[in-house]
């Protein structure tokens, strides 16, 4: 084996047992605290969070290994199990400490935002939005939009609290706050609310289908990270480039995904230094292959 080889291994469990995102997610307990409190069934959310985090972790681990190799010339094997990504993430988010030395497992709470004020509300015209008020500015803004400041002040006086000073207090008393907001939203349409939301810096988002989201200029159709291209399937549709924006650099257009094996000969020749005859023998022996159809 080459002494400068860097190998990244994405694994299931750290001990080598097979696993995928969904089986790791069930094991760490998140589906049992996701969903509404009146339904005991586990809820597997559709976002493969551990796959995504593991991919990102693998990428920056690889870059770190490359930088280290520039210093010491040594290669490295990097093992990144989905199970370790999930466990470390939950520990970093406080779930582990909360469950072991805190108040036990977090309970289901539907769409309530844990630790602050946030939930889904329905407007007079039937639109459903997600509203979040974490900062004092966000909290004041939504009160101004809905015209409920006097009612909130009266509740603060009754409870002896200051909702603007502590988002945790809003969370603790959300059962008293939510009905006030529900009633206020039921009297206003989304078209009435939208321009005022933007003016006052209210933190909110509409609930919309994925098909609707694809027509949202802030997400897809007018987003500069997307460009139209023809994919290996032969179908043409928009694809994202680099998700980060570097204002000092010109954005390059995304390229179609490579077919499996498309760069086999290039890697063998330019990276491993094999001759064309050696590469040919590997192909003839069935050890390597070119792009698949």
Q: Can you give me a brief rundown of this structure?
A:
This protein is α+β, with helices and mostly antiparallel strands and 293 residues long. Helix content is 43%, strand content 13%.
Question: Mind explaining what this structure looks like?
Answer:
By secondary structure, this protein is an alpha+beta fold. Among the domains are: 6-100, no CATH class; 117-207. Helix content is 43%, strand content 13%. It has 13 helices and seven strands. The protein has helices at 21-28, 49-72, 82-92, 95-100, 136-146, 149-159, 167-172, 174-185, 190-200, 210-213, 217-221, 264-271, 276-284; strands at 6-11, 76-81, 117-122, 128-133, 203-206, 226-230, 236-240. The chain has a three-stranded antiparallel sheet. It has a two-stranded parallel sheet with strand order 1-2. Strands 6-7 form a two-stranded antiparallel ribbon. It is elongated, with a radius of gyration of 26 Å. The two termini are 32 Å apart. The model has no long low-confidence stretch (mean pLDDT 94).
Order of helices and strands: EHHEHHEEHHHHHEHHEEHH
Counting copies of identical and different chains, the oligomeric state is: single chain
What shape does the CA trace take? elongated
Query: What percentage of residues falls in helices of 4 or more residues?
Result: 40-55%
Instruction: Please give the count of helices.
Output: 13
Assign the structural class, choosing from mainly alpha, mainly beta, alpha/beta, alpha+beta, or little secondary structure: alpha+beta
How would you characterize the largest beta sheet? 3 strands, antiparallel
